[in-house]
Amino acid sequence: MPYNLMVSKVPISTSTVRLTELTTTSSNKQTFPITTQVPATIIAAYNRFQNVLSRYGNVQQWSANEFDAKLHHLSHWSHLNAQQWLDFVNKSIAKLDPPMSPTKNFTFFELGVGVGAFSRRLLLQYPYANGIGVDIVRDAIDIARIVLPSDRMKLYTVSNNEYNMIDNSTIDHIIVPG
User: Fold this and answer.
1) Domains plus CATH for the chain?
2) Are 137 and 111 in contact (CB under 8 A)?
3) What is the torsional sign of CA 90, 93, 96, 99?
4) Bigger pLDDT: 17 or 125?
5) How far apart are CA 153 and CA 68, in angstroms?
6) Handedness of CA 98, 103, 104, 110 (dihedral sign)
7) Are 134 and 163 in contact (CB under 8 A)?
8) pLDDT tens digit sequence for 45-99
9) What is the pLDDT, as a whole number, of residue 146?
10) pLDDT digit string (tens) for 127-147?
11) If residue 114 lies in a helix (H) or strand (E), which one and from where to where?
């Protein structure tokens, strides 16, 4: 069944994304078998994202403070200052069940990880967390690989189907921030 998405006034239509039924494992973790088919209809959003990435300098030279202040701007959240961004992240995860805990191990999956701004905040706030991120924009994933610790965050692009190897029974939370 076709549906329309609106990404900052860029309409995207697709009829190939399928949602599959929610399942519950014996350990009572909620899992979502992920079936993704991505046609070329996302080109408009991809090109818009590429334009923003090209306007920023070499992220490798940014300090940790610059990451905290500016990284989310690369993901089209430039209307938020650093504190507003932190508040947005915290509000986005506040109602997760079970909640994320700073003293427990858990794994999150971020669909549309972009440059890693949301995942970076989670990894900073939750020292025992690990993450998996997927995005369609390779340049964004390249930036995320710079700013996120590779021992705690695995990153994949949709175009090369690497993400098909993800064992979704190990995922505690699925995050789609925006």
Assistant:
1) 3-175 (3.40.50)
2) no
3) negative
4) 125
5) 18
6) positive
7) yes
8) 445 555 555 555 577 677 777 777 778 878 778 889 989 999 999 999 999 989 9
9) 87
10) 999 999 999 888 889 889 988
11) none
**105-120 burial: b if 16+ Cβ within 10 Å, else e:** ebbbbbbbbbbbbbbb
Give the contacts of 119 (CB within 8 A, at least 6 positions apart): 108, 110, 113, 131, 133, 144, 148, 153
**Main-chain dihedrals φ then ψ at residue 24, nearest 5 degrees:** -120, 130
CB 85 within 8 A of CB 72: yes
> Mutual orientation of helices 82-93 and 117-125 as an angle, nearest 10°?
70
Report pTM.
0.69
Measured CA to CA, the distance from residue 177 to residue 112 in angstroms comes to: 8
Residues 18-28: what's their mean pLDDT? 35
Is-contact 14 36, C-beta < 8 A? Answer: no
